Amino acid sequence: MNRSALKKYAPQARLDFIEAVTLRTRRLGLDPAMSVSVEQTGDVLLIGGQPFPASVAKQRSELARRIQQQGFNAVIEALAYTWFNRLVAIRFMELKGYLSHGYRVLSHPQGQQPEILDHVQHLDLPGLDKAEVIRLKTAGNQDEALYREILLAQCHELHRNMPFLFEALDDATELLLPDNLLRTDSPIAHLISEIEEADWQEVEVIGWLYQFYISDKKDEVMGKVVKSEDIPAATQLFTPNWIVQYLVQNSLGRLWLMANPGSSLKDKMPYYIEPAEQTPEVQAQLDTLIKVRVNECGGTLNPESLSVLDPACGSGHILVEAYNLLRAIYEERGYRLRDIPRLVLQKNLFGLDIDDRAAQLAGFALLMKAREDDRRLFDDADNPPHLNVMAIKESYGLPDEEMAQVIINAALQIEGGEAFHAGQLFGGGQLETQHSSGLTVLDLRQLIKLFEHGKTFGSLISVPDGLKAKLGKIVELLANVRGQGDELSRSYASQVLEQFAWPASLLALQYDAVVANPPYMGSKGMNPVLKEFAKKNFSDSKADLFAMFIERGFVWCKSTGFNSMVTMQSWMFLSSFERLRFNILKGKAISSFVHVGYNSFPELNSKIALACAFVIGAEHFPGWRVVFSGLNDCEQSTDKGGRFLARHPEDSFVKAQDSFESISGLPISYWLPDSVLESFRNNRLVSDVSVARIGMATGNNAEYVRFWHEVSISCIGFELDRDEAAKSGLKWFPYAKGGGLRRWYGNCDSIVNWQSDGYLLQTKKHPSGDRVWGHNFNLNEIFKPALCWTVVTSSVPSFRYHGAGYIFDAAAGLLQEKDGEDIYSIAALLNSTSSARIVDAINPTLNLHPGYLGALPYAHVFDSSYVRELISIHKDDWDSSESSWDFSINDLVGLSAGEHSRLSDAWSLEESGSKSRHDRVMQLEGENNKFFNSVLGFDGCDLSVPVEPTIFLKNKNLATSELLSYSIGCMMGRYSLDEPGLIYARSGNIGFDTSRYTKFPADADGIIPITDESWFVDDAAERVREFVTVVWGADTLVENMEWLVDSLGRKAGESADEAIRRYLSISFYRDHLQTYKKRPIYWLFSSGKQKAFECLVYLHRYNEGTLSRMRMEYVVPLQSRMQARIDKLNDDINSATSSAQQKALQKRKDKLTKQLEELRRFDETLRPYADQRITLDLDDGVKVNYGKFGDLLADVKAITGGKED
């Protein structure tokens, strides 16, 4: 089957059918947006001046009523899919040869007009006027009208066996059969041409077409609160066939094998899992239970007694697979093949869905499977095949009291033998009248109102016990009235019977197997009505619709039955499903479990839909053992069905069901070794030795949080306790926010406004005014040493030590020791591969909340000095970067031997030191992992967890770019070669002390030009040369500059000066933005694309006179210099002795001319900004301040347009 073709065709088909039905609706004057005259004259109905038969009036009125009740768009959508479904069904049947007359209705074997048009004289279809057909055929120009009559007659004939899909004669829907069906661009033509005939061989094509048909609608509603009418689109998902086979074979098939141990059926079930071997005691209990089921049938399990329910049947994929297995069961018992289909449809298979169109296709798919086995299935007009597949309807808005009264009165009249007329109803209030069956009006009203929100609650509707006991009598009464009442009572009885009584009967039954791919919808997507229903009726599973279906599934199960479903894997682990897990682990028996994980639904091409499939018995047995198949560790692109069939030993796990009780929260972590599960029982937990908490949520990080380098260093308080911080008068304090993967120490780059003990944060109200915006202040824990981690991460969990002085963000979390436990010992455990493996087992999600940490088994490290060493190494590594507020000096500069030394020698030392640190971390972490593997039960296990250190080996390119960044910092006065550490990072150039920069003087104004040639003596490239000379000496300058540019990546033929200027112009600012996380401290003012003038301005030295100085010292003089250079080039061009020389000079002149034009425009923009004498409040942060200069600055959008953390 070419699914790509189906995927391309079906969404467009939906649009095409909607358009075609809409056009037909407008032609009939039914579009409320149009005003069309309607007038009946004799046998003619004139609509907008166009003639139609008068018989159309009744059908048109019915459509008008539906449009008024349901809305135009809803009716159009419904009728579009109705005709899509019908034509798809006819297409399937014509290609399979299932139509009674044997002709193709939509196509022709030779690609001509529909074959049936060649045989009109032989047709005998319901409602088809042969004389009219001959007249239209012989007219020669009435093929469209003829074809319309034939197609409608074909639908009428199919109604007999498929009333759920094809309506009766003169139904209103036939009015909206699209026009122009024989055109080459008609919906029928596209259906024929875009799907190859070979793709119609299996009935599975119906399900795929439906899935793709609704895909656009699904995309529209996903991620939103879903309206009731959109729930089908939001929740439908086509189940891969291998999963369907697994579900059916291990529920229905397993029951059959348990009752018939000698059956050969197992050989026909490739996805069947052999059950785990049980203890003799458990096996005896299981055997007793099966005997109960077998004895219900008189000593041997009768195939006709088997029952399978799919409560969310969609297009019938699961029911079709169940049909295949049931057929094999019947055949094994010796039934004739031609007798089997009707038995299976009538006695064994039951399906429900809230989506009418899906239920239609499910019923059709089952009939097609049955037709394969019984070619006479549709031949008996008096005995059409019976189906138990139904769409759940909604009774909201129906006159339930009137309907019930009409029906009961009709039943009473029929029982008394009197003629009944609905008008009699209103003569004498018979609300409490009781029928001889004991039924009253109230009983029928209760049934009708049960489905008030049928399209929202669907199969989750529970039939009250009192009503359940009366359903048989209700069905009988309704059938009698439908057959013998007057027109109104027959209509009401038929509606209540088909839409409410029959579905209620299915909901009230119990089944041998409940098999489903239930809808997936978290509580955030539920509308208020559904959310309240979930809260009231499914308190243990209300977090998601699929979980509610799991819970409801056990109600449908017989005591010997199986609840077999494929769902999202989240219920295996998340705390919101803990009660559901408890109920299953304590009250049921998991027969088999397949953890599909990634690539569960390949058509979605999504990592998000991580699924599990399971079969769970309704009864619990102490000591029960479960077979698990773990496919989640395979490559994401793996064919999971093929992998499952291969039965790799490493994918199979057998666990005692009660073993999961040893883990807090009862996660179904089947892959953990028994020795690890034992460690949960025998060891203390992390929660016994520490307290983990969610950190503070400011409610508005854009207002309260900055990177430390954005504000004046004099306003930040480091290493203070809470009392000292409150008294300091300082505004900003270190703030742990999580960050990327890094163990032991690091990610220390944020600060938070906690001025006056966080008064503003603790008092400022949310915009709604009903609460304080911030929360989780942890007042007794802040400023104390703690471990933190990144709460939301897709990588291995990593934990970092923070000493005194920190506040912790909600994205980081904080963990502090208690009862005198060693915080370093706890850090050792949490950063071990054993811990990572267990965390993944009990919480394989992106969110690592404190409760999961507390659930980990704990083992104490008696000598934690190696942990202190690891923290020290990682702190030194962190502090070697400018990102750290404890940065001291660039490594290469610190390793310089002074005059006459070489950069290459400094690099060799740095490279060697980096490797030594890396290797030492590898050694210490390896020993740490080995210890915890041993004490927590992982000895001998392949943990499949990365153990690479989170400090990285330095590379030459990065080291060189860091050196250049440091040199810029020394030029700006941020750093100095005279003394280590941060020298100036205050505000407004206030307090800048030039005496601290004697070896390498800082720039006088904090403005460093970046130019492609030497226009200024203090431009960045010139000062880099000066910097290298001061650090390593003049004797080795050339050699060092060559090493420098080679390390950066020099282009062929480039001089050292050209390479440095190119890096500074093109790459430096990009690297700077990355280092400072798009909150730069050196701001790049740029004239534009031609780079006529660019300069860096140090944020902390900027003042209201900076722009004026930039203009007068650089921009204005540069214009004069450029003009003089252009004049000189003109003279040189005129005196050039060769055309090549002249061409080169002209090229240089053209470039300078463009640059000068750009520079003049820049000057015109710069002048008014300089006149404004703009001041900055560094507390506002770079994002706000950077935006004050319009287009003068580079990368404005990247810096000011990003979302705050």
UniProtKB/TrEMBL annotation:
Domain of life: Bacteria
Keywords: Methyltransferase, S-adenosyl-L-methionine, Transferase
Gene3D superfamilies: Vaccinia Virus protein VP39
A Gene Ontology biological process term: DNA modification
All copies of domain Type II methyltransferase M.TaqI-like, residue ranges: 347-599
Record's keyword annotation contains Transferase: yes
Protein name: site-specific DNA-methyltransferase (adenine-specific)
Catalytic activity, as annotated: a 2'-deoxyadenosine in DNA + S-adenosyl-L-methionine = an N(6)-methyl-2'-deoxyadenosine in DNA + S-adenosyl-L-homocysteine + H(+)
Enzyme Commission designation: 2.1.1.72
GO molecular function: nucleic acid binding; site-specific DNA-methyltransferase (adenine-specific) activity
Annotated InterPro entries: BREX_1_PglX, DNA_methylase_N6_adenine_CS, MethylTrfase_TaqI-like_dom, N4_N6_ade-DNA_methylase, SAM-dependent_MTases_sf
Record PANTHER family: DNA METHYLTRANSFERASE A, DNA METHYLTRANSFERASE YEEA-RELATED
Record has Nuclease as a keyword: no
The species this protein was found in: Pseudomonas fluorescens
